[in-house]
Specification:
This protein has helices at residues 2-15, 64-73, 92-102, 117-125, 145-155, 166-172, 192-206, 215-226, 230-233, 243-246, 357-361; strands spanning 259-261, 267-278, 297-298, 311-312, 319-331, 348-354, 369-372, 381-385, 390-401, 410-417. A hairpin with an 8-residue loop joins strand 7 and strand 8 (381-385). It is α+β, with helices and mostly antiparallel strands.
Length: 424
């Protein structure tokens, strides 16, 4: 009987290649921890012929490739039951530990305290993490996507003092993709699948590689950063001929100028955001912000109030729309300023383009033009052709207080760049 029992054990051992994993953290969602509880649970997981663990719950998961790679590189592990639990959340400490191990930063194994203290200390020394990163909770709290953007951006050498910019830096580099249709989910928790995917991308960038960029996510992140997405959606337009400015042209945007206060204190308004929409892209998520394309026209005779004039923008799909949302905070003197009942928005002007006037009036979109729906000036939208336009100056986006007299007039530039055709 003993011989049969031993033979059964031997056959089982030969049939299943064993890997030993110690599960020793209090959080059920974690399989990335160290040894601070003293418990020792042995797991036996199947491996492929190449020695890569076969995790039972990732076969059809979108992150299977990234998970397999993370396990192979050793900065992520499966659970004793042979699963990875890709959709479980990770804590801040767990993400820091995985990042430190993936970057192969030297870790002192003799440090006392909690299991994660040594990894956190290493992350601080490497400028991956600062105490101010987490304003609530602690390192055992679940990590949000914004917090992941901050740490992952630092891991590839990005720096900023503007906390609103971290997601923009992460999306522009391809580290983080959106959750669909430009949704960033900054306050949503980070999953194990997302974590190992982003850490894998960090390694790719640090090795000199480049990553595909989710353009919708990057555009949304730019809006979060400074109130517009024109530099992401229209990079060939809002650019600079100055090589010292070209790569940092988005930094020229003056977010602080999006609020305008009149000199006499009787008018105040704010531009909430300025959104560029690619008419050639039927999936542009910002199309939902405006009326149906089929109902809009561009005004080819700006001196006319006739609704009979106007060219359907559907005929000019190879163009951008620039939509802005604003609010008048107060307008106290209708003798000095256009009343809110007449103009319930802050006027915005984009200057620097021109084209042949006769061609424009006859229906050729050769410069930026205002868009309307039922009557001229009823929409805060411009249309900007992708080609066929010229410049007579720098491309400037500005706002102004709608005063009747130059005495009360005030305007503010939000940005001014040379653009592709004008030499500064």
């Amino acid at each position: 009987m003993k011989n049969k029992t031993l033979l059964g054990v031997l056959v089982t051992t030969l049939a299943v290649v064993g890997t030993f994993t110690v599960l020793n953290h209090q959080s059920v969602a974690n399989a990335e921890d160290s040894s601070d509880t003293g418990s020792c649970i042995i797991s036996v997981s199947k491996e492929t012929a190449t020695g890569v663990l076969q995790l039972s719950d990732i076969t059809t998961h979108w992150a299977k490739g990234a998970i397999d790679k993370a396990v192979q590189l050793g900065f992520a592990k499966g659970y004793p039951d042979g699963t990875f639990k890709p959709n479980s959340n990770v804590t801040r400490a767990e993400f820091i530990k995985m990042t430190v191990e993936a970057l192969k930063l030297p870790v002192d194994s003799n440090t006392g305290g909690t299991w994660y203290d040594t990894y956190v200390n290493v992350a601080k020394k490497a400028n991956l993490y600062v105490e101010a990163d987490f304003k609530s909770g602690n390192l055992n709290s679940q990590m949000t996507r914004k917090e992941m953007a901050r740490l992952s951006s630092r891991a590839i050498g990005e720096k900023t003092t503007d906390d609103a910019k971290w997601m923009y830096l992460a999306t522009k580099k391809g580290l983080i993709s959106g959750l669909g249709a430009g949704k960033l989910g900054e306050s949503e928790n980070t999953t194990r699948a997302q974590s190992v995917t982003i850490i894998g991308r960090i390694l790719t960038v640090n090795a000199g590689g480049s990553l595909p960029v989710d353009k919708y996510a990057a555009a949304s992140a730019e809006v979060v950063w400074h109130g517009t997405n024109i530099f992401t959606v229209m990079p060939e337009v809002f650019t600079s001929n100055d090589p010292n400015k070209k790569d940092k042209v988005a930094e020229l945007w003056k977010k602080e100028n999006m609020i305008i206060n009149a000199k006499d204190g009787e008018y105040s308004g704010e531009i909430e955001y300025i959104i560029a929409i690619d008419l050639a892209d039927p999936n542009d998520p910002n199309l939902k912000l405006i009326p149906p394309i089929s109902s809009l026209k561009w005004q080819n005779n700006t001196s006319s109030n006739s609704t009979l004039e106007g060219i359907p923008i559907s005929k000019w799909k190879d163009s951008y729309l620039i939509y802005f949302k604003s609010k008048v905070i107060y307008s106290k003197n209708s003798a000095h300023y256009v009343p809110v009942s007449t103009m319930n928005y802050v006027p915005l002007v984009i200057s620097g383009t021109y084209g042949d006037v006769n061609e424009y009036v006859n229906g050729t979109l050769n410069k930026i033009a205002p868009v309307f729906k039922d009557k001229p000036r009823d929409q805060t939208i411009y249309i900007f052709p992708k080609k066929g336009w010229l410049q007579n100056g720098a491309l400037t986006v500005s706002i102004y207080a709608p005063s009747y007299s130059n005495y009360y007039a005030k305007n503010q530039d939000l940005v001014s760049v040379s653009g592709p055709f004008f030499k500064e």
